[in-house]
Amino acid sequence: MSNEVVKKNGNIKKAFDPQEMRTSVIPHLTTGLEPDNILKRLNEKLSKLIDSDGVASMDKDAQKLLRDAAMIFGLDNHHALIGVMNENYSPLAIEFANNLNKEYDCKMPSEKALSQVIVNAYIRLLDDTRRFNICIEAGEYLSENRTKHLAMLSKQIDRANRQFISALSALKQFKSPMIQINVKTHNAFVAQNQQLNANTNLNETITP
Question: Are 201 and 148 in contact (CB under 8 A)?
C-alpha cells in the first residue's frame, strides 16, 4: 500500500474514502493464491532450504508451494490434466497432449486447453470401455443392477466419444486457415437465398 495513502500528516491513516479504497487498498489485497505470490514465496522458501551443496530439504510448506507452482503451468506440464484421471493413464495422457500440441501447433492458452479436453475425453473413453468389458466378462448372469450398470457405462462411453470428436473438430477448426473464394461469373449463388449480382468480367475475392 502506498505511503501517500497509509500516512497523512505523519500519522498512520486508518480511514479511507471510497476512491482510495478502489485505487490504493483493494488492489493490494491478495488471497495468497495469485501465481506471482506463490512463485515469490517458493523462491524465498527454497533460498532458505538449499544447503551449501545445493540440496534442498523440503518441508511440508515447500512441498505445497511446489505443487501449487506446478499447477500454475498446468497448460504446459499437464499437471492439472493428470490429476483428474487414474494415474495408470498419466504417461499416455501427457504424451498424447504433447503430440497434439505439436501436431496442431498449439501456442495460445485456449488451444492448449482444448487439446487437454480432447485428451481427457479420450482417457475417459478408454477407462469406461475397460470397466464395461470387465463387467461383461465377470459372469454370464445379468442381474437388474448389473444391466443398469452396463447401460450407464455404455452411455458414458458414447458421451466421451462424442466429446472427443467434438473437441477435436473444434481444434481443427481453430487451426484451419481462412478460406478465400475467387468468383468469376455473371451471377453466383454463394449461400441459400443469397445472390451475388455482378457485371461482366467480374473478378472479386470474397473472404468469409
Answer: no
Q: Rounded distance, CA 208 to CA 195, Å?
A: 15
Which ranges of 18-82 would DSSP assign to H, the alpha helix?
A: 18-20, 35-49, 60-72, 74-77, 79-82
53 and 63 share one domain: yes
Strand ranges (E), the chain: 7-8, 11-12, 181-183, 187-191, 194-197, 204-206
State how many domains the chain has. Answer: 4
| 100, 17: one domain | no
Question: Can you read off the three cell numbers belonging to residue 105?
Answer: 501447433
User: CA 15, CA 114: separation in Å to the nearest integer?
Assistant: 47
Residues 6+ apart with CB under 8 A from 149: 135
pTM, whole model, 2 decimals? 0.72
SS3 for 163?
helix
pLDDT reading at 131 higher than 60: yes
Domain boundaries, position 64:
32-72
**Residues facing 182 on adjacent strands:** 205
- 89 or 48, higher pLDDT: 89
Is the per-residue pLDDT at 19 higher than 50?
yes
Distance CA 130, CA 28 (A): 50
Of 127, 112, 124, whose CA–CA distance to 163 is shortest?
124
pLDDT for residue 40 is more than 50: yes
User: With DSSP H G I counted as helix, E B as strand and the rest as coil, what are the percentages for the chain, rounded to 5?
Assistant: 60, 10, 30
